[in-house]
Structures
1.
Amino acid sequence: MKQRNIWIDCDPGIDDAVALAMAAASRDQLNILGISTVAGNQISDRVTGNALKLASFLGMEDVPVVRGARGPLVRPVEPAGDVHGSTGLGDCQLPAATKQTASESGIFYMYTRIMELPAGEQVTLVPTGPLTNIALLLGTFPEVRQRIEQIVLMGGSSSGGNVTPAAEFNIWADPEAAHMVFGAGVPIVMCGLDVTLKSGLDGAQIEKLCQSDRKVEQACGQMLSFYLNTTRHEGEENMVAIHDAVTILFLTDPDLFSGKNAAVQVDCSWGENRGRTICAECPDAGVVGTGDAAEDLSLSASVYLLDQVNLPEFQRVLLSKLASLG
């Protein structure tokens, strides 16, 4: 089986940690070129430290970890410590990292690694945090777009948010970056709240992970137990939505999900709708606008918006991958 080249851009974060575990368990399918960090769920130093610890813990010593943006494009970072805890990983204490960052200039490192791919090869970008790094990559090095097969991102929603009534956290954290990415002309798979709030584990499954004698299962159980208590208002009752894991499982097991073509516009205003993703179903290719030239921001029509998941199979695959890591 030919491996898909991917680059993971993340802000670990509990669900980022599970997404990284899914990637580590899928290396027969995924060639992980690197991991970059972006300030989001926690400040840059914490998410970068967490990424280093997780890469070591999950057996990805050979995967370079680089530091990306320390904050959004136009405003200070506002971490989600109330959701992910002061460390970003809940109550879980991982062993110290056994590796260091490969670069403190993550955008340039990412660009270089992608452009070094053999002729004809492309990469799938997998951002699970704010889209700051991806916007900077595409804006600074526009020639890289031809080497990107698609962007499979966690972010957005067609029907309300989780950080405000209008906005999902990753888009709200840096809407200007999201606007740039959605308008870049690169094919996007949007794993937003429409599907991620339906994709997770229940309390009994999490408790079983906590009781496991396998280190990865136990660590993920500890993190998800914390997450369950801080996100009870989201999604299904007694189920924790593991948002970021959807991106990796879409790549390894796409039949778990279904969706629709959509045009997406990001609200970059400073009002109550800041960070809202305005999604219009768009079965035919083209550009959807408001009809008002002054207001029309040219919605991107190259987005596949996931909105359905086979939950029992999602849970089976996720738990099987965790178990495979020992």
2.
Amino acid sequence: MRKQNKINFGARKKKKVDAKKVAIVSIASVVIVFVGAKGIGATTAFIQEQRQVKIEMDKKAEEERILAEKKRKEEEEKKKMVIGVNHNGKEDSYDAIEIAKKLKAGDYSNNGEKIVFLTFDDGTSTTVTPEVLKVLDENNVKATFFLTGENIERGGQKAKDLIKQEFEKGHAIANHSYSHNYKILYPQRTLNLESFNADFKKTDDILKDVLGPYFSTRVIRCPGGHMSWKGMEPLDAQLEEKNMASIDWNALSADAEGRKKNAQQLAEYAIKTSEGKEIVVLLMHDTYGKEQTAKSLPQIIKHFKDNGYAFKTLA
């Protein structure tokens, strides 16, 4: 009798289950690998993004640091700048631009406050300037000196030392051109701005050489007076752009006008032309040959003190 082979259905079923498990595990592995790869990619992208953010933040912080350092240095340089008067002289100085506006408008009122600006043109001279400085010092008042480069060079080191003395005493230093030559500055009585600028720059350079590279002045006086010449509009625009002032005058001792006068006559003229004005810009000269101006100064100063004027400088 033939033996019949028994079919093991349990083993076959087990094989099917095992194959199914393998398939599930394989699919799961693929999914895990895919998801894992995707997760790793996302993490890498996040890290790179954060790294880029940090780079940008560090860059911005560095730019801000550089900007702050630049600003600090600019502030330090600004503190070193000396405009017209030394630091001690600032308390006696007045805004020259405001005075220039007043002079131009012919408005010499000042809300009841009387102020006088003693101004000296064409220095520095080695003969008259020392006498003027002596009187100013004795009376404890300050003045504004409008200097010409040619006279500074003419006086050599002594003239330069006088400029330093003016500055150290708290007086204001202003530019009155180099040559004082009308033909150069105003050919045919009309401003030549290029020649004018070149001429004034020579004196600016001399003043920086004497008083140091941080010195500058924003106050000028046109030789002959701004009021005397044609075609001054380009200069006005330039001064406004540079925050500078051209200062004329509304009173004078006439030490450069008409016949020669003695000290008494000069003082009387100065007093007369100052009458009724709360703001007085008094024109005088401390150049060579103006010894009588220095001698007239005590009487002039006394008059203004007696009449309640404060002495100011232009800066």
